Amino acid sequence: MDLQRLKPHLPWITLIVLVVFVGITDSNFLKPANLLELAGDIVPLFIMALGLTFAIYIGGIDLSAQSMANMITVVASVYLASLGLWVAVLCVLLGFGLGLLSGFVTTRLFVPSFISTLAVGGVCFSVAQWLSGNRALNMDAEQRNALFGWMIGRTGIIPNELFIAAGLLALCLFIERRTTLGRALKAVGAGEMAAAASGLNVTRYKMLAFAISGALAAVAGLLFSVKLSGGAPTIANGFLLPAIVAVLVGGTPLTGGVGGVLNTAIGTLIVAVIRASMLYFGVQATQQQMVFGLVLIAAIALTIDRSKLRTVK
Amino acid sequence: MKRLMTRENAIRWAPMLVLIGLVILFTAINPAFLSQRNFARIAIAAAPALMVAIGVTFIIVMGSIDLSMEGTVGLTAVLFCFAFLATGGTLAAGAWVAIPLILLLGALIGLVNGLVHVRLRIPSFMASLAIGFVGTGAAVLVTGGDIVKIDDDTFRALLTWRIAGFPLMIYVVAALALLAWFIQSHTTLGRNFYAVGGGEELAHASGLNVRRVRIMGFVLAGVFYAVAGILQVAKLGQAESVSGANFMFISITSVVVGGVALWGGIGGIWNTVVGVLIVNVINNGMVVIGLPDFLQDGMLGLLVILAVVLSTDRRSISFVK
């Protein structure tokens, strides 16, 4: 049993070890109600990580996800009154469109994705500040409950967010495993040169990957604003790091090609357990960033495929 | 005349022309822009940003990237305040010790950054992003989210003592920019940055210890971030964990807009100086002519895309990630 054969199984082994470890130290942790609440709370982060998976799967990165979610919380709060349920459509389209723009800038204008998405993130931040007038906005509680209340309620003891998460995961899994798009993304991630040489329209598929990432970041923002019943230009700050961590500890390396959305689901659960255990050990939310930064380095170092990087820049 | 219009010349002079054009444009809209007072204001706003941008220039010239500046600036600014207060609270009473101490800390953070990037073979943008998160987290940890104030007239003279209308810190920054230029152009290390950026495999094949050069680059960048942290404290008289906020976007935009190619090997300190001035003239000019300031990040975002597009030789690259 060498490390290479063990590697694909590391994420879920890590998860189980963590759960057992935390379960032993904190007897309340393993109660179903607690676990369900924990899972429900992490859903907006999970959706963002789900989108990020597509960008990372092709060997890129999307640093605009957080700004996108920020902007969407503002858009949702501002237009809920006038558009009603259609505001959801607007949000997803906006995310898809801006993601497409990131993809266009990356693939057609040859700007590396971490710069192009950073720039698009800047645009999102401007839009959010402009729309909100740099204030925290509130949704009309009655209207929110009538239109989007189903997102945050409970069915039995199960938070409804989990159904949304499961639905989106199934959709993404379908895209990844059962569609031409999914196969194409795998080819691009495994070897872009070879994919292009075998006649694949690499540009189009890469643009679509960024668009999916943008759209899911928008869904995450929408859900988050519904949860908080409002929005602000910096409200979702602090999402980006754990979202990237979730993708990477799940086993989708920065170099792309392997892993996928199911891995991200496991990765997000790992993040959730780490968070819960940190709270239990008295590490405050504001200090968790340091821990996640270190986890991130470890996760990249373990997962990255060095044979794909001739020179590490 | 035809030889003058080469790509190299266009890239070399375009940022300077853009800067002059912007100054003329803003002056035409509001003559108040072209005043010594306003220029001093721009210079003060630009001073810490210039230090960060110069630091990251060394890295970008090598073809790598450093995204750790927000955390490094935040942490050094906060710890500088603590060290300053612990060693007496005034420059005269021995608190000057805090300055070399914090520069050393900057170098140390840079060293960790470089080691993680080179030894663990992690792409620099991700390694430095993670280190940046750790830095911000550490800054929150030591401050507990509070603001640390420094109230020392001697130290604040960096901002309050004016020579020919410009505060002392501007002259400090100018001297450090000269130093950076000296390192870049007249030292082996500076030459080596260009060798690595121009073609890493070639540099390696000709016997250069590429890994060491890379680590040294990150150390040097860390020192400049620490300077920025100290200047940030001098400017505001206080520090908090978010003292480094927004430096990542501003500094990288500046470097790229100034004409330093993201691919490495092209451009240098002077491009960065011009780039920082362009970004700050735009920020200041937008306020002077009465545009709302929330447009700034969006404008800069579009500007950086434009700059990368213009400075990229599309024939020489096949694909980007």
From TrEMBL, chain A:
It is a multi-pass membrane protein. The keyword Cell inner membrane applies. Its main location: membrane. Pfam families: BPD_transp_2. InterPro entries: ABC_transp_permease. GO terms for cellular component: plasma membrane. It is found in: Cell membrane. The chain crosses the membrane at residues 12-30, 42-60, 72-97, 109-131, 151-175, 207-226, 232-249, 261-281, 287-304. Keywords: Cell inner membrane, Cell membrane, Membrane, Sugar transport, Transmembrane, Transmembrane helix, Transport. The keyword Transport applies. Part of the binding-protein-dependent transport system for D-xylose. Probably responsible for the translocation of the substrate across the membrane. This is Xylose transport system permease protein XylH. It comes from Paragemmobacter straminiformis.
UniProtKB/TrEMBL annotation, chain B:
The chain crosses the membrane at residues 12-33, 39-61, 73-92, 98-118, 125-143, 163-183, 215-234, 246-266, 273-292, 298-317. Keywords: Cell inner membrane, Cell membrane, Membrane, Transmembrane, Transmembrane helix, Transport. It is a multi-pass membrane protein. Its main location: membrane. The keyword Transmembrane applies. Signal peptide: none annotated. InterPro entries: ABC_transp_permease. One of its GO terms (molecular function) is transmembrane transporter activity. It is found in: Cell membrane. The complex is composed of two ATP-binding proteins (LsrA), two transmembrane proteins (LsrC and LsrD) and a solute-binding protein (LsrB). Part of the ABC transporter complex LsrABCD involved in autoinducer 2 (AI-2) import. Probably responsible for the translocation of the substrate across the membrane. This is Autoinducer 2 import system permease protein LsrD. It comes from Paragemmobacter straminiformis.
